[in-house]
């Protein structure tokens, strides 16, 4: 079982202007992701969610603290952490199957072998019929599914998802939430998922961390089980309209909003 | 009567399209600038221009010394095809010019594109190549033509070098700009799938820069044709530019015009070919 650990991680960006001050993007973040955790980070823009993901992905080195995957420090990006971007980041000159198997091609896997692996994951995201299509021929939701399948092909220990549904329309977004949950259940991967949609966060998370900006830090953490109710009933809208769900949402909104007011006054 | 009416109607309809009054038909988008096919109009313009040329010259309004008739130019084409003019037949001149232009173009492709990519991905390469390229780029090739003659003499090496220099800069700068059109997400994506730096450069950056590289090749070959006549000004024995310049010395205007048409036609055909290649290589251009 894999473990991703963040120990007192801080990230300080240099000032944007000569006279400006250092920007404390993250301050003293401690977080453990393990088993089949689906950790959702929620917060207003500028609260350091993406910085946190970039640290886990190995794109940014923390200013202090440690980031460990299975007790080994993360020093650079690698295939053991699959990243799904907000803007799908597909390569427009490759068709769906070649985009999906791109990582395997980089690892020099043989063509027929990597096609087999990629087909398996394309089937999982429901795109097995679109192997020969090019990205510009796909809808936004389908592009994101290719991005998800691609991240899965190298069998990473954790999926890092940076607002993967942020650019989709509301209806596609609901469908994709269910798809992501189903895939998470089938593959048993750890997931770190960023969103600024409160509903999405509460619905999908096994653990929800609410973050606040300047300096970016975790102000509240919840263990939730609404995803289980969805697995039982297969009725996402009903789950989201349960009184308990609404209560949690209200509380989370109060926290985020209260924090904003405090910052405005301070 | 009805004809003039319908003409009036058409022109009013077009005016309203141009000035964006009145709602458009379903399927068109209101206010979109310059939509619709222009092929028919272009054909009409070309035919009109040639007709005007034919009409004016045949009426004898302009002396053949200044502008010969289209028939005379066409006849010269046939004449020079079979008989030598200024030291060679038309095919001989064309061959010499094609060798120079495409030789220089080929050399520029294999050097300018890698240099441009290297400038885009590496600050050291950018630091090294930026000053010389930006310094010589705005200088007209005619400006450094004498220098290439002093250094390299007057044979094909000098001519190809001159054309090569003209082609190199736009191609290198386009390739460099192409690197910037690759998104940071695409690059990070490749690294997060375990790519090496070399793999990122080849599989993401070079391929992502292809639209700009091809545009650069089109612009580059254009500069090549522009420079050809300059390159063939001094001590050439064959070449379309040489043919045109010799003809101009003896005021053989029909050969001058015929030569211009040959250069224009070849350049245009090659550009059509490049557009075809562009469609094949980067069908996704402008769609994502």
Spatial separation of the terminal alpha carbons of chain A: 44 Å
Q: Got a strand count of chain B?
A: 0
**Averaged pLDDT of chain B:** 90
Helical residue percent of chain B?
Answer: over 70%
Q: Identify the overall geometry of chain A.
A: globular
Strand elements of chain A, count: 10
Structure description:
The complex is a heterodimer of chains A (266) and B (288). Chain A is built from ten helices and ten strands. Chain A is α/β, with parallel strands linked by helices and 266 residues long. In chain A, the strands form two sheets. Chain A has a six-stranded mixed β-sheet, sandwiched between helices. Chain A has a four-stranded antiparallel β-sheet with strand order 2-1-4-5, covered by helices on one side. In chain A, helix 4 packs across helix 5 (140-153) and helix 7 crosses helix 10 (243-265). By secondary structure, chain B is mostly helical. Chain B has two domains: 2-67, no CATH class; 78-281, MetI-like (MetI-like fold, Orthogonal Bundle), CATH 1.10.3720. Helix content of chain B is 75%, strand content 0%. Chain B is built from twelve helices and no strands. Chain B has helices at 2-18, 39-58, 70-82, 90-121, 123-136, 141-152, 156-180, 184-192, 197-208, 210-231, 240-249, 253-281. In chain B, helix 8 packs antiparallel against helix 9 (197-208). Chain B is flat. Chain B starts with a helix and ends in a 7-residue tail after the last helix. The interface between A and B is medium-sized, with 28 and 23 residues.
């Amino acid at each position: 079982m894999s473990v991703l650990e963040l120990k007192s991680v801080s990230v300080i960006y240099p000032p944007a202007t000569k006279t400006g001050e250092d920007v404390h993007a993250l301050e003293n973040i401690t977080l453990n992701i393990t088993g089949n955790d689906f950790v959702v980070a929620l917060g207003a823009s500028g609260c350091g969610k993406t910085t946190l993901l970039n640290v886990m992905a190995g794109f940014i080195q923390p200013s202090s603290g440690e980031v460990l995957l299975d007790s080994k420090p993360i020093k650079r990006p690698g295939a053991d952490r699959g990243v799904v971007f907000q803007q799908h980041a597909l390569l427009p000159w490759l068709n769906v199957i070649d985009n999906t198997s791109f990582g395997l091609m980089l690892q020099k896997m043989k063509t027929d072998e990597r096609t087999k692996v990629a087909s398996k994951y394309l089937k999982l995201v429901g795109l097995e019929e679109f192997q020969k299509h090019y990205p510009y021929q796909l809808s936004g939701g389908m592009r994101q599914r290719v991005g998800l399948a691609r991240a899965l092909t190298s069998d990473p220990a954790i999926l890092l998802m940076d607002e993967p549904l942020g650019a989709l329309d509301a209806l596609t977004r609901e469908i994709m939430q269910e798809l992501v949950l189903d895939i998470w259940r089938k593959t048993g991967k750890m997931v770190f998922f960023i969103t600024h949609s409160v509903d999405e966060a509460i619905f999908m998370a096994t653990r929800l961390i609410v973050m606040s900006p300047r300096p970016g830090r975790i102000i509240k953490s919840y263990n939730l089980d609404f995803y289980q109710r969805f697995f039982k009933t297969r009725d996402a809208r009903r789950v989201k309209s349960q009184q308990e769900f609404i209560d949690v949402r209200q509380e989370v909104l109060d926290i985020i909003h209260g924090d904003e007011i405090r910052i405005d006054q301070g | 009567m009805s004809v003039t009416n319908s003409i009036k109607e058409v022109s009013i309809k077009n005016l309203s399209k141009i000035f964006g009054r009145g709602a458009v038909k379903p399927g068109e988008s209101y206010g979109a600038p310059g939509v619709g096919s222009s092929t028919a109009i272009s054909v009409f313009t070309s035919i009109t221009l040639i007709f005007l040329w034919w009409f004016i010259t045949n009426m004898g309004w302009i002396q053949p010394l200044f502008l010969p008739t289209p028939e005379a130019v066409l006849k010269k084409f046939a004449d020079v095809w079979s008989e030598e003019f200024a030291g060679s037949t038309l095919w001989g001149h064309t061959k010499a010019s094609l060798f120079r232009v495409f030789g220089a173009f080929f050399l520029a492709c294999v050097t300018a594109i890698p240099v441009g990519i290297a400038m885009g991905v590496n600050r050291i390469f950018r630091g090294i190549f930026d000053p010389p390229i930006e310094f010589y780029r705005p200088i007209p090739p005619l400006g450094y033509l004498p220098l290439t003659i002093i250094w390299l003499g007057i044979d094909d090496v000098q001519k190809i070098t001159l054309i090569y220099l003209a082609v190199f800069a736009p191609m290198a700068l386009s390739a460099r700009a192409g690197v910037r059109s690759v998104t940071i997400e695409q690059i990070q994506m490749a690294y997060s799938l375990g790519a090496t730096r070399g793999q990122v450069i080849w599989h993401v950056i070079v391929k992502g820069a292809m639209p700009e590289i091809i545009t650069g090749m089109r612009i580059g070959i254009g500069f090549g044709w522009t420079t050809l006549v300059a390159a063939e000004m001094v001590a050439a024995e064959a070449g379309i530019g040489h043919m045109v310049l010799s003809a101009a010395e003896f005021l053989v205007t029909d050969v001058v015009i015929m030569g211009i048409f040959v250069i224009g036609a070849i350049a245009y055909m090659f550009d059509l070919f490049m557009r075809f290649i562009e469609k094949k290589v980067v069908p996704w251009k402008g769609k994502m």
